[in-house]
Amino acid sequence: MGISDLNGKDTKIQDTPFGYTMSVIGGKWKMVILYLLAEKQPVRFNEMKRQLGAITYKTLSAQLKELEADGMVERREYPQVPPKVEYSLTDKAESLLPVLEQLCDWGVKNQGKEL
Predict the structure, then answer these.
(1) Which is nearest to 62 in space by CA: 96, 93, 91, 28?
(2) For the CA atoms of 67, 68, 70, 71, what is the dihedral angle to 10 degrees?
């Protein structure tokens, strides 16, 4: 179901495939986290926090938990002192990478241009 399939239908956006997609990757940080993991994985929590910069520990933790619950991120905990936790993309998230690449291509073509 694409945008043209909804033309003229009284459908709530959250009930569409687009709505589902946005519920999984929407928000300020989820796509950034997925992009970071796509570039380099696995990534430890503190390393991710350093690379993301402005995100708080609480927000990063919450976003990772949501991505994990949606089957996008795998969390691997190692029983050691100090604790070691690594995050990586699941196959489901890997299937989204071509879309992220298209967004990057769009940015290359349109950065600095007035739309």
Answers:
(1) 28
(2) 120
73: left (phi > 0), else alpha (psi -120 to 50), else beta? beta
| The model's pTM | 0.82
Q: Sheet harboring 73-78: ordered strands across?
A: 43-44, 84-89, 73-78
Query: CA nearest 66: which of 37, 27, 12, 98?
Result: 27
Q: How far is CA 16 from the centre of its chain?
A: 19
Q: What angle do CA 58, 103, 30 make, to 5 degrees?
A: 15
Q: 71's torsion region: left (phi>0), alpha (psi -120 to 50) or beta?
A: left
Q: In angstroms, rounded to a whole number, what is the distance separating the alpha carbons of residues 29 and 33? A: 6
Residues sharing a CB contact under 8 Å with residue 17, sequence separation 6 or more, in sequence order:
1
Give the model's pLDDT for residue 94. Answer: 95
pLDDT at 8: 61
DSSP 11: -
